[in-house]
Write a structure and sequence with these properties.
CATH architecture of the domain at 437-538: 2-Layer Sandwich
Oligomer: single chain
Mean pLDDT: 95
Shape: globular
Number of strands: 25
Strand content: 15-25%
CATH topology of the domain at 437-538: GMP Synthetase, Chain A, domain 3
CATH superfamily of the domain at 437-538: ANL, C-terminal domain
Bound molecules: 5'-O-[(S)-[(2-aminobenzoyl)oxy](hydroxy)phosphoryl]adenosine
Largest sheet: 9 strands, mixed
Length: 547
């Protein structure tokens, strides 16, 4: 099957074939036809199966769309893209909006029309949007009208971006008005399984954002791995969660996975713990996708959660501290499903279901994926030895025109940048991001291990640990601690915390320096940005950077 793309920009800027990871499809559910459009599989197919009247996507203030409704809306948007905005297959379309049913409709519209969806993280500024538009050479944009203030200047700065329409508006030239001129019919473009369908930018803990390229086949592959083997959702499940659809954790968990089984999703514009709590109750949500920090806060509301309809809760994005797993179980009676995923891999590749969860371990390779821990030369190390995580499976890293391809992919394996160890039973234990390993007086210390120890102290609300340069020891462990309200930051407390850590982990790992701060720097996806703390140390500025 040849490509359906007329605009071949994305294809032309894939890394050379020899720099791709090995792609492994050695399971029956991972056999895909040469012609495949994932929007047809996830959306059109549900109508063909007779599920048109089933609920599909909802939001608190409405709308509530069935599969037939979403199909119709997506078709109308696709018609606008093709007939009024001149989209040809292969064009990149920027989607800029918080999680809403309309964003879901636009996402499917782009893919149905054979375009490539590039969803922007919410609240990106004009400068960041400009970087994305330039990198992916974006030609079209569909944007929530409430975000026009940031997209406007980016459009002015980006000559390639010629066609922009705003939605959530009743303006005469707004998307809704244009959609009304088309009927709900649109023939989904017959793309090749390996035509590019989305470009996702990494949430970037460091450096210039990287653009990861994924095919129609990749989207279907992730639907047949983690959900099929670990999550096992059912058609009556109601998915809910916090990650934006721009983050592939959210795209999978809140759109692709529910739709792959004919279930429904609740899309929240604001998905802080309090809003989540309210919406779980309002919609009788059963499957929750969010990050460890959010579970930690939610767990304090055990009264509201005790009788909730939740039955499956997925944690990803950051390491899950064993204490958080316990807090969640106490609050809800549910065992968390931890899973490590990456934008480069599209979704989760190591995980364990409720019955197989082990505190402190991420889990086992998800069926379809292989994982191993290797030394600096790529040689597998034995159980108990800390090394680099290398994975491969049906999805893998292909950066758009980026020299860093050969850093992530070596010898056909994807190197996620995480330090891991494997135990005798084959469970994978996350240690730290490889950059967050601290070497102090010859000892290797994983920042999260010290953080987990500190987090067990009742005064600590949040904390981050880094290595700071030290003449004698090379580096020393330094902790940035956010205290619970009403607790006073004293010298006495510093000593108490240090002693506390020494009692939980080997004494050489205790934080020799502790600074109390009001908040920690995090990415929009909730990841701790330890590098920003390191930068503030390098700049001889001991206060934490403003989040
Ligand atoms: C870290 C974890 C320990 C790890 C993601 C699920 O997080 C996602 O993608 P990103 O590209 O970041 C990838 C990196 O995040 N990480 C993620 N999950 C875990 N570390 N335990 C975990 N459970 O350093 C990894 O390399 O932002 C997660 C699905 C899709 C995703 N894109």
């Amino acid at each position: 099957m040849t490509t359906a793309h007329i605009d071949t920009f994305a294809h032309d800027h894939l890394p050379p074939r020899e720099q791709w990871p090995d792609l492994v499809f050695d399971r029956p559910e991972l056999q895909f036809p040469a012609q495949l459009n994932c929007a047809a599989e996830l959306l059109d197919r549900q109508l063909a199966l007779g599920n048109g009247d089933r609920m599909c996507v909802r939001a608190p203030g409405g709308p509530h769309w069935t599969y037939a409704d979403l199909h119709e809306q997506a078709n109308r948007v696709a018609a606008v893209l093709v007939h009024e905005m001149g989209l040809v297959p292969g064009n990149r379309v920027l989607l800029d909006a918080p999680n809403t049913p309309m964003l879901a409709a636009c996402w499917f519209a782009v893919l149905k029309a054979g375009g490539i969806a590039v969803t922007a993280m919410p609240l990106l500024r004009a400068k960041e949007l400009t970087q994305i538009v330039d990198k992916a050479r974006i030609t079209h944009a569909l944007c929530d009208s409430r975000l026009a203030g940031q997209l406007g200047p980016a459009v002015a700065a980006c000559p390639t971006l010629e066609q922009v329409r705003y939605f959530h508006t009743d303006a005469d030239d707004g998307l809704e008005a244009l959609m009304a001129r088309h009927d709900g019919r649109f023939d989904t473009v017959a793309t090749a399984a390996d035509d590019v369908c989305l470009i996702a930018f990494t949430s970037g803990t460091t450096g210039v954002p990287k653009a990861t390229v994924h095919f129609h086949r990749d989207v279907m592959a992730i639907c047949h791995c983690f959900p099929t083997h670990i999550l096992r959702p059912e058609p009556d499940d109601v998915f809910i969660g916090s990650p934006p659809l721009a983050f592939t954790f959210g795209l999978g968990g809140l759109l692709l996975f529910p739709m792959a089984v004919g279930a429904s999703a609740v899309l929240l514009e604001q998905a802080g713990p309090i809003q989540l709590l309210g919406a779980i109750d309002m919609f009788d949500a059963t499957v929750l996708f969010t990050a460890p920090t959010s579970y930690r806060v939610l767990a304090r509301h055990s009264a509201e959660l005790r009788d909730s309809t939740l039955r499956k809760c997925v944690s990803a994005g950051e390491p899950l501290p064993p204490a958080t797993r316990v807090q969640w179980r106490v609050a809800t009676g549910l065992e968390l499903i931890d899973g490590i995923g990456a934008t480069e891999m599209l979704h989760i590749f190591i995980s364990a279901d409720e019955a197989h969860a082990r505190p402190g371990a991420t889990g086992l390779p998800v069926p379809g994926y292989e994982a191993r821990v290797v030394d600096d030369n790529g040689k597998p190390v034995g159980p108990g030895v800390i090394g680099l995580l290398a994975v491969r499976g049906p999805t893998g890293c292909r950066y758009l025109a980026d020299e860093r391809q050969t850093v992530y992919v070596r010898d056909g394996w994807n190197y996620t940048g995480d330090a891991y160890s494997m135990d005798d039973d084959g469970y994978f234990h996350h240690q730290a991001r490889a950059d967050d390993m601290i070497v102090s007086a010859g000892y290797n210390i994983a920042a999260p291990e010290v953080e987990n120890a500190l987090a067990g102290h009742g005064a600590v609300a949040d904390c981050a640990v880094i290595g700071v340069p030290d003449e004698d020891r090379g580096q020393i462990v330094k902790a940035y601690v956010v205290l619970h309200a009403q607790i006073e930051a004293t010298e006495r407390l510093v000593e108490e915390l240090q002693d506390f850590v020494k009692q939980t982990v080997a004494p050489y790992k205790y934080p020799r320096a502790i600074a109390f701060v009001d908040a920690l720097p995090r990415t929009p996806t909730g990841k701790l940005q330890r590098f920003r703390l390191r930068e503030s140390v390098a700049a001889h500025n001991d206060s934490a950077p403003t989040p």
